[in-house]
Design goal:
- It contains 11 helices and no strands.
- The protein is mostly helical.
- Helix 5 packs across helix 9.
Length: 199
């Protein structure tokens, strides 16, 4: 099975290095209003799809800001533009076209007319869960081309990692110690209230 090579081809391995200085610097450069954002790598339609997916994955809650408020779509677009190699970028464009094809009832439907329910249903249908069978991978296990499910899971992973490593979440939501001086050993519930440490 070529799943590992397929995941590399959509930059999944790069997504694990969110804590590196270069990536953190890239993330800090994402400022501005999400409503007026113009994608660098994605086209306008793909950017709208990404914004909606991020909003479904990390919506605003009573206690936490949404992924859109932290400019996560801008970061992912920059990441794809500056970090992905040519092959990963090619696969990303192909997969966005496939995702858009799944979302639209017909080719003339504008993406901005779709509701959040459309994006939620897409993620519900294609998220890799414990009992999920990736039909695309099952039908062609030798291909190194990523599947729609693998691609959407990469978007989810990048969204969550970018959110966790953002300055706002890292310094105000997660337990944060800029100059750790004491080693703590014990139950995470007792030490941080069950929250993981900020990176």
């Amino acid at each position: 099975m070529k799943r590992r090579e397929a995941l590399k081809n959509i930059g999944l391995s790069a997504a694990f290095f969110m804590g590196t200085p270069a990536v953190l610097s890239l993330m800090q450069s994402c400022t501005g209003n999400t409503q007026t954002w113009v994608p660098e790598f994605l086209n306008e339609e793909e950017g709208l799809v990404l914004k909606n997916l991020v909003d479904v994955i990390l919506p605003k809650t009573k206690d936490l800001p949404s992924g859109l408020e932290l400019n996560i779509p801008q970061f992912i677009d920059k990441f794809m533009n500056e970090i992905f190699d040519d092959e990963s970028q090619m696969h990303t464009k192909t997969l966005f076209a496939e995702i858009i094809g799944l979302l639209k009832p017909n080719s003339e439907t504008p993406i901005d007319e779709l509701s959040q329910d459309n994006f939620t249903a897409l993620l519900d249908d294609y998220m890799l869960t414990e009992d999920f069978i990736d039909q695309d991978r099952e039908s062609d296990p030798k291909t190194t081309k990523p599947t729609k499910s693998e691609f959407l899971n990469t978007i989810k992973l990048m969204t969550i990692n970018a959110y966790r490593t953002s300055q706002l979440i890292g310094e105000t939501i997660l337990p944060y110690d800029p100059v750790p001086g004491t080693y703590f050993c014990g139950d995470l519930e007792d030490i941080t209230g069950g929250k993981s440490w900020s990176l």
